[in-house]
Design brief:
Layout (H helix, E strand, L loop, with lengths): L3 H12 L8 H11 L4 E5 L2 E10 L6 E9 L8 H15 L4 E4 L6 H11 L17
Parallel strand pairs: 3-4
Antiparallel strand pairs: 1-2, 2-3
Helix pairs in contact: 3-4
């Protein structure tokens, strides 16, 4: 919970999350849900990035990475890659065999990390998306 304010600030500034919708209770629930797959990167006491993921929990041994955020001021310094590698290490330690991540086609920075530096590929998956917001 000590990182709540700084993580909220990252989500609002980097992803445009509605600050009224990201409460301390929601943050606590997310940290509990993601558990070992919720990791932060700090420079000194400042949170400059975080990653979250989860495993399927049903014995299929798939992991899912849901969110990678790095402060614009600290990008291109290996922080995103380090966070992803630490998260992958947690998956491996838990016995996860494969990890899936969804990255927007236009998110060149994330694609560079996942595809180029870490070695993710399309494999057998085609991810589909549906917005549930009113149109």
């Amino acid at each position: 919970m000590e990182d709540f304010r700084q993580v909220k600030e990252l989500l609002v500034n980097e992803l445009g999350v509605d600050p009224e919708n990201f409460t301390r209770d929601k943050f606590a629930a997310a940290v509990e849900y993601f558990g070992r797959y919720y990791l932060v990167a700090k420079v000194g006491e400042r949170v400059v990035g975080f990653v979250s993921g989860f495993d399927d929990g049903v014995g299929l041994f798939h992991g899912y990475m849901g969110r990678l955020v790095v402060d614009k001021e600290f990008r291109n310094n290996g922080i995103g890659r380090e966070l992803v590698e630490r998260c992958l290490g947690g998956f491996k330690d838990a016995g996860v065999n494969s990890v899936i991540v969804g990255v927007r086609r236009d998110n060149v920075a994330s694609r560079r990390i996942f595809e180029g530096k870490i070695g993710f590929n399309g494999g057998d998956y085609f991810l589909l998306y549906k917005s549930l917001r009113e149109q």
